[in-house]
Amino acid sequence: MQQEQQFLIQKNQLLWQKKYKEIYAAVGIHPQNILDEKTIDYFEVISKLTENKKTIMISEIGLDYQESSPEKKLQQDFFYNQLELAKSKKLPVAFHVRNAEEDAIKLIDLAKINELKSVAHYFSGDYEYAKKLLNKNVFISVAKPFLIDEKLANVIKKIPIDQLVIETDSYPQYFKKNRERWTEPKDLELIITKLSLLKKINTDILSEKIEYNSKYILNI
Length: 220
Hints:
By secondary structure, the chain is of the alpha/beta class. The chain has 8 helices and 6 strands; from the N terminus they run H-E-H-E-H-E-H-E-H-E-H-E-H-H. The chain is globular. The termini are far apart.
């Protein structure tokens, strides 16, 4: 049964990648999903999926320390193993970290990913954490919280444009009754507008730079 599930995952991915030339794939196990049945042989499955030429990133992996989260040591093992896989496949990484900055830095150091292109997804940390990531060749990804969180905005203001990207973290969020609280592609324009004001850079120039950074990370 497990092998059949793995085959279907791979088959479906190949189908939509062939159908839509502009669509690429990122593969990985989110820390909140590592107890799912399909993660039993996750390393082999992800490794197989990276053989597809349109799989261009290991994502979204990382650490998420909440009461409902899987045991910390298990999360750490998954994160480290997937970092090692990214190194072996020479693929960029996008990682998620919540309430686990210190452990994340330790594992990033242990895996020695400085030569990889990596992204701190949905960044919400302080400047000290940001500096540690920047020193490890990590790009900082700015999302919707940046629009209302002035403390975060002050952190982002200090980060070089050469190490910034933006994102939506977009997916249908029907659990949020207020549609304005969803994260959607339209929010990217709002993020660029605020960034341009903070950085005092023309929005068109900033957009071009962000696009360049994104394509550089993804090798596309």
